[in-house]
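Researcher: I'd like a candidate sequence for this fold, 565 residues long. If you have to choose between options at a position, lean toward the conservative one.
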């Protein structure tokens, strides 16, 4: 018997009931079905394993994506599970998570189904009262120890299981989120655990974090849990951590634990290293300690850092003295400083330009600049100005080289439930029209991404966001062509894809007015065109790729195993 961690696709079953998902995932490594599972999956599975439970990770979404013939229901039916743990972290998985839970319950009515993640933490009562396929919700940002406790008491008293909500005699019971550890150093992920799990299950694919990982592996290092900033559209803000997950201040991974994680990554996988969350949030002493230890250990993987605030000369210098190859990511979101300030980012365009300049002077390899469409207070004009701004930035800083890479993509069609703007939409220029989880679940059954939106802004409806996305997609490619980042062929492909996307959007509108059976058949007839739009529109996959590390024999072996198993 095994505790099975199942990662669902965003929509179940996207292969049989195709839905036109648009470019909602273009700025992340996942495809539109969001097959990337949360890191917590591995840390929870590893924690249970260390404490005597047998565990298995199954990236169901990826298995379904890779093999059209893979029968997810048969697969779940055959699992011999002690419990099913399903992530409902981001609301985009609401449909897939609830449907996969239903399948688990259908074949294994006596096996507990456990939900966890940010969205689950925001909606525990609603999940347990409206969706009988879910038995337990583990809340908070650290569920390793509570899950172990729950598994030990699965047939007994639950009152002492921290962070737990459950159903008892049709009543919802809820323990507070009291497990909020200051340290998560013991959660360093050991790739040996994953390899053991892969061999035991004879399943490489089910353990892969996302589709392109096997070709472009990246190792993540989670430097902190929590944030010190308050972006109003983010459920991971400082205010949300306090209000929803009961974390009063961020916890930082100790420098020695970071070194341990890097060393394990280096031994087994050799990929580039992505430092999740802005390491500067821990203060100068903290990140300098980390960098000093990295230098002492002579680690030299290519690295990527996120910048939640502008890059000053000092940090840029520290980076260049520590790493031979480093990339940076910054998200000013919109050209307009008013729009940026409204979403909670208090820095100017001058700060953005200074950051790029400092990075360039200190030998940064690549500077990714992210902009979004669909923000509070944003208008068509500010999106247009953003594109002009990108043009200016590329002209000023690239000078024919490939250094700044701009991205512009739709804000995920859902405003994170519980984020500051979700709670107080009017103040920040939003209107939320799907507040409950059940409403959002219904929305994801609709035939196109237009209906996934749980919000509109005071200036932009979902239709506006979609049209602006298409216009900006083409315009961005033209700008990139002007600056040597895209070819004529890339521009033509983008135009063609926009043309197909607009046509599908028009045809899905007709489907919405049809009856269920007729609509389903009409949608199925669009499948091959919808599949065509699964290719990224707003950027090429390769633009998102992080720098490559040296080739690892173990990664090569993993690829071979993947082919055999
Ligand atoms: S989006 Fe803003 S609030 Fe959310 S994690 Fe990033 S910096 Fe923090």
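Model: Candidate sequence:
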């Amino acid at each position: 018997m095994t505790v099975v961690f199942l990662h669902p696709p965003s929509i179940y079953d996207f292969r049989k009931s195709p839905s036109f998902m648009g470019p909602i995932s273009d700025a992340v490594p996942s495809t539109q079905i969001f097959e990337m599972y949360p890191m917590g999956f591995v840390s929870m599975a590893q924690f249970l394993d260390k404490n005597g439970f047998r565990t298995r990770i199954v990236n169901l979404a990826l298995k379904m994506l890779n093999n059209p013939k893979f029968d997810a229901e048969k697969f779940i039916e055959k699992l011999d599970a002690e419990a099913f743990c399903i992530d409902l972290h981001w609301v985009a998985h609401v449909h897939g998570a609830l449907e996969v839970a239903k399948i688990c319950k259908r074949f294994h009515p006596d096996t507990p189904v456990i939900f966890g993640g940010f969205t689950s933490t925001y909606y525990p009562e609603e999940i347990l009262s409206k969706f009988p396929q879910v038995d337990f919700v583990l809340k908070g940002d650290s569920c390793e120890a509570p899950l172990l406790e729950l598994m030990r008491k699965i047939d007994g008293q639950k009152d002492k299981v921290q962070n737990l909500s459950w159903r008892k005699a049709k009543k919802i019971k809820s323990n507070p989120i009291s497990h909020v550890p200051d340290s998560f150093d013991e959660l360093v992920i050991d790739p040996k655990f994953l390899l053991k799990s892969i061999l035991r299950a004879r399943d490489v694919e089910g353990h892969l974090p996302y589709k392109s990982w096997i070709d472009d592996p990246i190792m993540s290092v989670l430097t902190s849990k929590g944030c010190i900033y308050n972006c109003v559209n983010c459920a991971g803000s400082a205010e949300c951590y306090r209000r929803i997950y009961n974390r009063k201040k961020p916890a930082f991974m100790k420098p020695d634990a970071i070194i341990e994680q890097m060393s394990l990554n280096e031994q087994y996988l050799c990929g580039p290293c992505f430092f999740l969350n802005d390491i500067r949030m821990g203060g100068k002493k903290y990140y300098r300690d980390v960098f000093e230890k990295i230098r002492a250990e002579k680690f030299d993987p290519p690295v990527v850092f996120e910048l939640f605030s502008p890059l000053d000369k000092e940090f840029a210098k520290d980076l260049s003295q520590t790493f031979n190859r480093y990339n940076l990511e910054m998200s000013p979101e919109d050209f307009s400083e008013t729009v940026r300030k409204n979403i909670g980012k208090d820095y100017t365009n001058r700060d953005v330009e200074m950051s790029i300049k400092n990075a360039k002077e200190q030998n940064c390899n690549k500077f990714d600049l992210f902009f979004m469409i669909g923000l509070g207070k944003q208008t068509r004009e500010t999106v247009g100005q953003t594109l002009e701004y990108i043009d200016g930035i590329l002209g000023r800083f690239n000078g024919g080289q490939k250094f700044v890479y701009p991205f512009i993509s739709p804000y995920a069609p859902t405003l994170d439930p519980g984020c500051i703007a979700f709670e107080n939409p009017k103040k920040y220029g939003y209107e939320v029209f799907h507040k409950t989880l059940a409403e959002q679940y219904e929305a994801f059954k609709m035939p196109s991404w237009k209906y996934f939106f749980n919000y509109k802004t005071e200036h932009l409806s979902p239709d506006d966001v979609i049209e602006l996305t298409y216009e900006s997609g083409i315009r961005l490619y033209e700008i990139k062509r002007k600056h040597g980042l895209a070819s004529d062929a890339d521009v033509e492909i983008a135009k063609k894809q926009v043309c197909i996307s607009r046509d599908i959007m028009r045809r899905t509108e007709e489907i919405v007015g049809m009856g269920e059976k007729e609509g389903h058949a009409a949608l199925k007839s669009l499948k091959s065109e919808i599949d065509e739009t699964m290719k990224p529109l707003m950027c090429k996959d390769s633009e998102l790729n992080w720098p490559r590390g040296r080739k690892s024999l173990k990664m090569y072996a993993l690829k071979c195993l993947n082919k055999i198993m």
